[in-house]
Amino acid sequence: MDRRVFLSAAASWTALRGAELLMPSDKADEFGFRLMWYNPSPAIIAATYRLRVGGLIEKPQSLSIADLRRLPNETQNSRLKCVQGWSARTDWGGFRLGHLLEMAKPAKAARAVRIDCADKWFEYFTLDQLLSKRVMLAMDMAGKPLADRHGAPLRLIDPSRYGYKSAKLITSITFVEEGKGSMAVDLGPFYTPDGEIQPGYDHPLDLGEKIRRRHKAGEITEY
């Protein structure tokens, strides 16, 4: 979305709702991340938040933040790469999808997952993609709970795919028979359904605004 259109829509939304909205920014924050949003959206209210897990499963779930915090926690250090040409690296903390599978017990026909977000963004993944050992449902960043601007209270981290696949502000996970690509493919030619990182050049903003580095396909591990 053109940033001017976004800001105009955000101003109108704020006037109607009276709520402070999560806004995009071209300036990197203290961690080296620029902030991207699909639609103007207020921060999620932690006290009333529930992650809805449904679809082709035996046991639908409605999980509070406290429920999610009780799942086995893991940490990983990984770089998030944006299709716009920049990246940043930090420590992430959260849980793996396998723990939700144990709770929800998906049907044999469930081979994919749809993820929906508070800003109306959505993504599809196969179960195999989400069960990769480097894919995380993150609740922490740099040793602290996710900030609102980074998708609190729950976001996906898939370091082998461009950042648009790492959905933020996740509100529901739905098990389905097959995936249907990505919402991003309707927005422009730079997006693909799988979002796999291709070889190319990168500006790692956490290392400096003027640095430019070449990287291989997949998760960036060179720096």
Q: How is the topology of this model organized?
A:
Blueprint: H1 3-17, E1 21-22, E2 41-42, E3 51-55, E4 61-63, H2 65-69, E5 74-81, E6 86-95, H3 97-104, E7 112-117, E8 122-126, H4 127-130, E9 136-141, E10 144-145, E11 155-157, E12 170-176, E13 200-204, E14 213-215
Parallel strand pairs: 3-12, 6-13
Antiparallel strand pairs: 1-2, 3-4, 5-6, 6-9, 7-8, 7-12, 9-10, 9-11, 13-14
Structural summary, described in words:
With 223 residues, the protein is an alpha+beta fold. The protein has a single domain (44-215), classed as Sulfite Oxidase, Chain A, domain 2, CATH 3.90.420. Helix content is 14%, strand content 30%. The chain is built from 4 helices and 14 strands. The chain has helices at 3-17, 65-69, 97-104, 127-130; strands at residues 21-22, 41-42, 51-55, 61-63, 74-81, 86-95, 112-117, 122-126, 136-141, 144-145, 155-157, 170-176, 200-204, 213-215. The strands form 3 sheets. Strands 5, 6, 9, 10, 11, 13 and 14 form a 7-stranded mixed β-sheet that branches. It has a 5-stranded mixed β-sheet with strand order 4-3-12-7-8. The longest helix is centred in the first third of the chain and has 15 residues, at 3-17. It starts with a helix and ends in an 8-residue tail after the last strand.
